[in-house]
Amino acid sequence: MEEKVQKIVEELLEKIGVTATVDVEALEDSYQVRLDGEENALLIGKHGNTLTSIELIATLILAKEIGEFKRITIEIGDYRREREDYLKDLAGRLKDDVISSGYEKTVRGLKPWERRLIHMHLSEDDEVITESTGDDRDRVLVIKKK
Question: How far is the CA of 52 from the CAs of 43, 80, 113, 126, in angstroms?
Answer without folding.
Answer: 9, 10, 9, 32
